[in-house]
Amino acid sequence: MKAFERKLVLGAWTDHPAIRHLFSRWDLPGRPACGGLRIGIRAGYLNLYVRGQSVAKLTGGKQGAKLEVHPAYVEGLKKVPDRSQPKRRFDRYCRFASDSVSETDIDRWIATAATYSGAEKAFVDDLVAANPGTIDLEMGLPANPGELSAPRMDLVVAQDGDIAFWEAKCSNNPELRAEATYEETKEFEYVRGIHVIHQLRKYVRWMEHEQCDRRAEVAKGYRDAATILLKLADAFGRPGDEARAAWQMLADNPAPHVILAPGIVIGNYDALNQAKDAGCDRQATVNAQYIERIRSRHGAVVAEIPSADCATLPRLTPHVVRA
Questions:
Q1: Model pLDDT for residues 127-177, shown as the tens digit of each residue
Q2: Which of 75, 86, 110, 276 is deepest in the core (most CB within 10 A)?
Q3: Which residue(s) pair with 96 in the sheet?
Q4: In degrees to the nearest 10, what's the CA dihedral of 292, 311, 23, 219?
């Protein structure tokens, strides 16, 4: 069974000119990115994101850093809005040693990847900009025994030395609404109803699996992630006192509380700054009845965000999401 871990080998690779240029584009949580990068620590590597879109995977080691990048970004193939044009398919990612990468290459990758961001990914980046305690995004989980897949969580926040989780949705996401009453099988499989409820309940079940001590793994994993992020921020001289303070509080907490269930955060605006049409406005209004059902019937915590300027998340407290 695979454990949940957060680790990264640090070393001389942090002094390489190309890597230093890459991390000069890193904006710590609590600061607007403006085309810059966010970081998610993984089990032995880190992911870099621009506007919520993955740019590259970086693995550090004694022999230097290695990067994996999508071929479209390497070639500078920006996303085009014309869906009639055929999409190119790529079999594998491109791999580079840090010695073979230039600053121009890195800037091209970032600029190209940004064109592939969607509204929900951009919304998550707005949340990172407004919440200095953010410690992870696109949190992937290893599967528990007897399961083929595991849930993912959009945002992880260090909250006063504890750990809180948020599932992010745009207001027109169909997973926020359903006419049918929620139902799941005895095996907890989704049948019908508002689908985001199933996502939250599945996440809680993952944490509470009887054969695993997932809460302890996650608590340790994010304490380790906080320590790594602090070391990276120091190594590359990145500003962001509020983020550093939040990470330090978590790193110093010997037993951080893993707050369950996750909250739902809904973006009631277009994070890509595209012109809204009547359909978008109408959908946001229709969702109000479903949001009330999510809160009152299912007991979920819902935070509604009207704009990027008002994207500070509320303090999350333990609660139960009912079927």
A1: 999 999 999 999 988 888 877 677 889 999 999 999 999 999 999 899 999
A2: 110
A3: 67
A4: -50
Q: In whole angstroms, give the CA distance from residue 33 to residue 72.
A: 22
| Crossing angle of helices 214-235 and 241-252, rounded to 10° | 140
User: Could you report the per-residue pLDDT of 58-69, keeping only the tens digit for each?
Assistant: 999 877 899 999
DSSP-assigned letters across all residues of 67-89: EEE-HHHHHT----S-TTSPPP-
Nearest Cα to 9, choosing from 43, 39, 32?
43
Structure tokens of 316?
């999350």
Laid out side by side, the sheet with 38-41 consists of 38-41, 46-50, 53-61, 64-69, 94-97
227-236: list long-range contacts, CB under 8 Å, 24+ apart.
227/251, 228/6, 228/7, 228/8, 228/10, 228/41, 229/39, 229/41, 229/135, 231/10, 232/10, 232/14, 232/23, 232/26, 232/39, 233/28, 235/10, 235/14, 235/23, 236/14, 236/20, 236/23, 236/24, 236/26
Q: Where are the domains of the chain?
A: 12-310
